[in-house]
Specification:
single chain; 410 residues; 2 domains; 5-stranded antiparallel β-sheet; 16 strands; 25% helix; globular; binds zinc ion
């Protein structure tokens, strides 16, 4: 489920204001390209983040606490422990519910394959008027027993052509702690006093270019550092050699579904001398919930933790996006919600999920069979959102398709 990166030589440009006395970045001024990249981090599922940071970039791979070990455990588990091969793949390559917006941005670092649609390999099965099946996972099993591996494209009119999140001409100030504010009159560099900085003479403006590989560095540093811009632009080598330990935090007000019954029970082995849990024995309901964390988007997790995770800079990024203007600062008003209330991708949510992370609603599709008499000509067949009607010979022009649920596949 991986796709090839675009031109890796591409760069985005921004300017940073450096305090020469203490060698720190005061803030950066950036346009759409860089800000879209930063905001796209909030749309990444946790499994995607664990995968990206486990690869070398200019920096060595990093671990994001137990998230990285959870991801690696799934990778190491034999596929026989999962309901299907698809279920394991869903955890290792969870989809991004904002892929239509985030995958076309400049220097996108999420290499997850974009959603594709599949129907039964058997034309006769698809030819049925009602009850035809649709899958967003390759090689799931059709009700007829054959594989659903025939890719079908969406009708051109239902394809989104959105590029990123913020307006093309907008400018933003990004502080060293990753807070972002709109710089509508583009005066940030001329009025640092507005942001509480007095000694403008000790500051210099530096233009910088960033490559795709460096964006992976920036994500790694943003997960670990409280001053990610300074560590990224000015102290990367030192930072590499002394990777800071993750913050810990006591979580109180986690948003979850009210739960009257059906608690998962587990047995734990505790070492009395240190009062630490050595391991737990749990059933599939608890394991399902644990593994489903990998499908949660970062912005959705920040939402249920109300901007108080143990990732301080990501918290700052999240909380600053919460107060951006949905109309003035975003290409369309719903895009802010896609970041601060990021949803799990369609069909990735557990039925008994206890956490309040919503699932992206599925799009109902019909199978357009207008040219079915020439069935071998695949290019004439497509998915449409238009309702169907019958032809004179009794075959429908377009008939509704029902999604195969990979989580209930036997
Ligand atoms: Zn079939």
């Amino acid at each position: 489920m991986q796709r090839k990166h675009p031109n890796s030589e591409e760069k985005v440009t921004l300017k940073i204001l450096v305090d020469k006395k203490i060698n720190e970045v005061v803030f950066a001024e950036a346009g759409k390209d860089f800000v879209d990249i930063l905001l796209s981090f909030l749309t990444f599922p946790l499994g995607t983040i664990a995968r990206i940071v486990s690869n070398d970039s200019n920096m060595p791979k990093v671990s994001v606490g137990s998230l990285s070990s959870l991801y690696q455990s799934v990778a190491n588990l034999d596929v026989s422990h999962f309901s299907s091969e698809t279920c394991k793949e869903m955890l290792l390559h969870p989809r991004n519910s904002s892929e239509d917006y985030s995958q076309n941005i400049k220097l996108n670092i999420d290499d997850t394959e974009k959603t594709k649609y599949f129907i039964c390999e058997d034309w006769e099965c698809n030819r049925q008027g009602r009850g035809g099946l649709l899958s967003i996972f390759r090689n799931t099993r059709c009700k007829c027993g054959k594989l659903m591996n025939r890719e079908i494209l969406q009708e051109k009119t239902s394809l989104l052509n959105m590029l990123g999140f913020v307006h093309d001409e907008s400018t933003f100030i990004i502080f060293d702690n990753l807070s972002v504010i709109a710089d509508n009159d583009q005066s940030g560099f001329y009025q640092p006093k507005n942001f509480g900085y007095k000694y403008f003479n000790a500051m210099k403006v530096v233009p910088v270019n960033i490559t795709q590989k460096e964006i992976v560095d920036l994500l790694k540093i943003s997960l670990l550092s409280k001053t990610p811009l300074t560590d990224f632009f000015l102290r990367r080598e030192v930072f590499n050699m002394n990777l800071p330990k993750r913050d810990t935090r006591v979580f109180n007000d986690v948003r979850s579904e009210p739960c009257d019954e059906g608690y998962s029970s587990l047995k734990v082995m505790r070492r009395k001398s240190s009062n630490k849990i050595l391991f737990a024995l749990a059933g599939d309901d608890f394991i399902d919930i644990l593994l489903s964390f990998l499908t949660f988007p970062l912005g959705g997790v920040e939402n249920i933790l109300q901007g108080k995770s143990c990732l301080r800079s990501i918290d700052n990024l999240y909380k600053s996006v919460v107060v951006l203007d949905p109309i003035k600062d975003f290409k369309s008003p719903n895009l802010k919600d896609k970041l601060v209330n990021s949803r799990i991708a369609q069909q990735f949510k557990l039925q008994n999920q206890i956490f309040l992370v919503e699932e992206d609603p599925i799009v109902e599709y019909c199978f357009n069979t207008k040219c079915f008499g020439f069935a071998n000509n695949v290019s004439n067949l497509y998915l449409t959102t238009a309702p169907g009607y019958l032809t004179l010979d009794g075959y429908p022009f377009s008939s509704p398709l029902v999604y195969v649920n990979p989580l209930s596949e036997s």
